[in-house]
Write a structure and sequence with these properties.
Order of helices and strands: HHHHH
Number of domains: 1
Oligomer: single chain
Distance between the termini: 9 Å
Strand content: under 5%
Number of helices: 5
Largest sheet: none
Helix content: over 70%
Length: 117
């Protein structure tokens, strides 16, 4: 079960690294604007805000990766909990898709980590 937990935590970290790239570096591109349903004008106006959000997602990924490297379950439990709370808030305020992109993988990874203890 431990290897399943490690794979799922790694997957959640990769999802958040991908979000970092989207929000910090590709925010103004047509593909990302289509993904988030924004206009070129909105993307230009909100680029700094999106980069800030991307940075926070980077911190989530860093905490998860550190937990994997240090082989310390406290870090993944804490950071997965943060991912889940942020995802629930995002789903309630931005898009329900966030439930499937962020919350479900986070919950599965958290359950696997707790079961592997």
């Amino acid at each position: 079960m431990e290897w399943v937990a490690r794979i799922l935590v790694g997957l959640v970290a990769l999802i958040h690294i991908y979000i970092v790239v989207l929000e910090m570096f590709l925010w103004r591109t047509e593909r990302v604007r289509a993904t988030f349903g924004t206009t070129a004008e909105f993307a230009a106006e909100s680029a700094t805000l999106a980069a800030n959000q991307g940075l926070y997602n980077g911190f989530l990924a860093a905490g998860l990766i550190y937990g994997l490297i240090a082989d310390d379950t406290a870090f993944p439990v804490f950071f997965l909990s943060c991912v889940i709370v942020a995802g629930i808030y995002g789903a309630a305020t931005v898009s329900r898709r966030i439930l499937f992109v962020q919350v479900v993988p986070g919950v599965l990874a958290l359950a696997a980590v707790l079961l592997a203890r």
